[in-house]
Amino acid sequence: MESMEVIHIEDVPVEEVWGRLQSDAGSVLIDVRTRAEWTFVGLPDLKQIGKQVLTVEWQTSPENKIDAAFPQRLAIVLDAAGSKDDVELFFICRSGVRSRMAAESMANAGYQRCWNVADGFEGPLDADRHRGQVAGWKAAGLPWVQG
């Protein structure tokens, strides 16, 4: 039985992701959270740098099952957006766990430059068990909008 190659996906700090999205016209931010999260928690806002976040759910609701067709679905979205398989792809979720798995799946599908956004959109829980205050996109004060 042939084993799948283990691909190491590096975490990139949110401020560095923002800079690379600004400086590399082809780079893409992919939010893999659920529709409910996009709607009720918010989305990164890339309008000021002339980009749009691509949204493709890693897990399907309501059972929160990992979508086995994710690589194919994202490839279609990337193709429709005019992205090539050699551009930098930055994956973001709530805290960096689902996005890492999504980045690994795309790397296994042949995309060479996949990165995980460290701490995700909301980051870890703070002492009061709230997100968005300690680390991540929101805590860094990067642009975002309510869905």
- Helical proportion, percent range: 25-40%
Q: What is the distance, rounded to the nearest whole angstrom, between the alpha carbons of the first and last residues?
A: 45 Å
Q: Overall 3D geometry?
A: globular
* Largest sheet: spatial strand order: 1-8-7-2-4
Beta-sheet strand percentage? 15-25%
State the order of secondary-structure elements, H for helix, E for strand: EHEHEEEEHEHEE
Number of domains: 1
Given helix and strand content, the structural type is alpha/beta
Summarize this, please?
With 147 residues, this protein is of the alpha/beta class.
Report on this structure.
By secondary structure, the protein is α/β, with parallel strands linked by helices. The protein has one domain (about 10-145): Rhodanese-like domain (Oxidized Rhodanese, domain 1). It is about 25% helix and about 15% strand. It contains 4 helices and 9 strands, in the order E-H-E-H-E-E-E-E-H-E-H-E-E. It has a 5-stranded parallel sheet. Strands 3-9 form a two-stranded antiparallel ribbon.
